């Protein structure tokens, strides 16, 4: 793994906490060069200072298309090539469609989908020209199996998976790898926004993934042809069964689905 990653420049969005911060740590440990993006420059600098080797930070709001374009312009100007892009930035809000304000739907799509796509657009020309690179999208099991109060969030992740699958096929002739990472609930500050009352968080506490183990798995598969990383395995199995028998799953697990 270290031979694959050593010296590689890896852009990580949403790197100021949680999975993104742990991915940066594992990239650095493997000898790579993490390039950290998030809105909070001070937090990014704090994380970068704790890493081994080279690392760089850039403040960027992934909801702002012009900010993304300018940030990547500077990164490419200062570092030359970007070897990997890990689109980790994203957030969710758990409310019913009736209760959720349209501005919250738009905000999730701006970051989770449109911001992600814009970041991809910035790295594609160089990767396609060099015929190498890796794009990783931190998606969600919600993109395969939606539940009540997740209509907004799940629809963004459905969009991410559709985009990722098409992108993978488009880039295969150019030898650029594309990986989707589909996760169940992870023990991060995601739930501060998604579930401020803590109801859902309490109901899934025992199932929560460790962000460090997620990050380790992602970095382990950098610069390989891994199509998907699905965690936890039992939830991925449930998603497959759901695709085959959605009505049965909704009837059997209806109460569990509604715990938000």
TrEMBL record:
Gene3D superfamilies: NAD(P)-binding Rossmann-like Domain. Keywords: Oxidoreductase. Pfam families: adh_short (PF00106). GO terms for cellular component: membrane. One of its GO terms (molecular function) is oxidoreductase activity, acting on the CH-OH group of donors, NAD or NADP as acceptor. SUPFAM superfamilies: NAD(P)-binding Rossmann-fold domains. InterPro entries: NAD(P)-bd_dom_sf, Sc_DH/Rdtase_CS, SDR_fam. Belongs to the short-chain dehydrogenases/reductases (SDR) family. This is Oxidoreductase.
